[in-house]
Amino acid sequence: xxxxxxxxxAAQSVIYMPQHRxxxxxxxxxxxxxxxTLDFIAKHHMFEPLDRVLVAVSGGKDSLSLWRILLKSxxxxxxxxxxxxIDAGGAYSKRSGEYVRKFWRxxxxxxxxxxxxxxxxxxxTVPEMAGRRAGGRKKLCSICGLVKRHEMNRVAxxxxxxxxxxxxxxxxxxxxxxxxxxxWDVEYLxxxxxxxxxxxxxxxxxxxxxxRFYERETAAYAIVSNIDYIEDECPFSKGATSLRHKExxxxxxxxxxxxxxxxxxxxxxxxxxxxxxGYERPVLQACPKCAQATGIPGLCAFCRLTTDxxxxxxxxxx
Length: 318
Ligand code: AMP
Ligand code: ZN
Ligand code: ZN
Hints:
Elements: E1 15-17, E2 22-24, H1 26-43, E3 52-56, H2 61-72, E4 76-83, H3 92-107, E5 113-117, H4 118-122, H5 126-130, H6 136-158, E6 163-165, H7 170-182, H8 186-191, E7 195-196, E8 205-207, H9 215-224, H10 241-255, H11 259-273, E9 285-286, E10 293-294, H12 301-307
Parallel strand pairs: 3-4, 3-6, 4-5, 6-8
Antiparallel strand pairs: 1-2, 7-8, 9-10
This protein binds adenosine monophosphate and zinc ion (ZN) (2 copies).
Adenosine monophosphate (AMP) binds near residues 57, 80 and 166.
């Protein structure tokens, strides 16, 4: 903002991206984000122009921007909003859903919006599934992640979408990568990719087309595009470990712009070359109830959670 002029047309810029030494005006910034997204989708073979794409939308800046970019680029992209029933005194899920619906009416009236209400489907909201036991918030976040993954996968498969996309940005990906690296969690490191192809075992294809953009860039894209989005973070995410990782990375980024991008890119390069050779993924099997792939014998973690939500939910199933 301010002193920089657009590199393409010399008009007043709306954003300066120090890691690329690039300032752009509103029009050229939108075009740059859209072109970079299409390049990233093509480079990683995320999906093809005629594929049906399901966008998981949370009401936040990333996923709504993603839906907008895909529609503007001519993809057949429908939305999926999962109402998790998070209230926490601020009607968080209800308000998030309103932003999603508003976006749909304004920018995507010809697409479908699938809304899935957990409480009416399974009788319990995410906080109710997590219960009030010790380890509360951490458990709630992992149950919430588990429920979202299971339901996104189920809907994508049942409705015949070729791929499901989420709005994860570079700040999200770098923070998760940082956490996985601190623990040297090989299984997670191998599964952390901008694209995961569909598997015969019942997992839908997944992709993260915005994984190369900083959070401030997706926010700027939403603002310049006049997309209204929920600004609050989930009330349960405050103080979560991933937020602490984000703080550490932000302070490194401030000292040396591009740190996060390089961290993530170098990881993708190493991953492609085959880091951790000889490592074998655990064999997956089908859950007898929902048929989704699971690494443990018997009911999958989601089915255990929803079949007997009253039963004590041990860490072992997460
Ligand atoms: P988060 O895990 O909240 O950082 O969100 C990561 C991505 O998951 C978002 O960009 C969305 O694509 C998707 N997502 C998060 N929450 C929901 C939701 N309630 N319904 C549908 N998709 C969601
Ligand atoms: Zn310009
Ligand atoms: Zn199951």
